[in-house]
Amino acid sequence: MTEPESIPAGRFSVWLQRIIAALRGGKAMDVPCRSCSACCESAYFIQIHPGERRTLEVIPGELLFPAPGLPSGHVVLGFDEKGRCPMFGPQGCSIYSRRPRTCRVYDCRIFAATGIPAGADKQLVGERAQRWQFDFTTPEDTGMYSAVRNAARFLEERAGLLPRGFVPVNTTQRAMLALSLHDVFYQEDAGGRSLEETAAAVIEAATVCRQAGAASVGE
């Protein structure tokens, strides 16, 4: 059965609140994937925290390698020659109930929300992202959407005001960062700040979000 050209993504403000909660350690995202498995077949490296013991128990050690730039114990699950996750089989994810937290919070609607492209090497994900259609039924929806887009634009255009390495090269991480910064650009007084003040607020908000996310990992 052929899927429609556009796919309902839900009310924007509700979705945004849910994914922010997930990034900060809340429940996994419930993505209406239907038959799509693009993220499982798009050559993603999946980071796994050492506290994710139940996940590490079901992944063969030979499939894991140290995560570059992270402390000892942090590992990465790679992909096969076709770009598929080695835990993805004919019936889908073979460890779904114990999948990594990275997979639990992943939601390709982040690209539709931020306007950040998934990347030239993530064609399947990019095609899916273009089909999502959010609902904007209240001023809150449009306001939050504008804030997210402004956050993404700031990261792209004003990276020079931020510490080196602050803006991720990885498009998924950059989109998630933009989402976590939406409050900075949603505040009523946001338009009255200087660029330097906005940069300081961005750094502070990102630090709080990262600390919350790191503290939430562990089983």
Tags for this entry?
219 residues, mainly alpha, 3-stranded antiparallel beta sheet, two-stranded parallel sheet, globular
Question: What would you say this structure looks like, in words?
Answer:
This protein is mainly alpha-helical and 219 residues long. It has two domains: 8-27 and 111-121 and 130-219, no CATH class; 32-106, no CATH class. The protein is 42% helix and 10% strand. The chain has nine helices and seven strands, in the order E-H-E-H-E-E-E-E-H-H-H-E-H-H-H-H. It has a three-stranded antiparallel sheet. Strands 1-7 form a two-stranded parallel ribbon. Strand 5 (88-89) and strand 6 (92-93) form a beta hairpin. Helix 1 (12-23) crosses helix 6 and helix 6 (139-157) packs across helix 7 (171-180). The model has no long low-confidence stretch (mean pLDDT 91).
* Major sheet attributes: 3 strands, antiparallel
Find the count of extended strands (DSSP E, 2+ residues): 7
Helix-strand category? mainly alpha
Q: What are the low-pLDDT stretches, counting only 5+ consecutive residues below 50?
A: none
Percent strand: 5-15%
Oligomeric assembly: single chain
The overall average pLDDT, rounded, is 91
- The ordered H/E elements are EHEHEEEEHHHEHHHH
**Domain module tally:** 2
Main-sheet strand order equals 2-4-3
Could you estimate the helical fraction of the residues in percent?
Answer: 40-55%
Helix count from the secondary structure assignment: 9
**How far do the termini sit from each other?**
39 Å
The value of Rg in angstroms is: 18 Å
Shape: globular
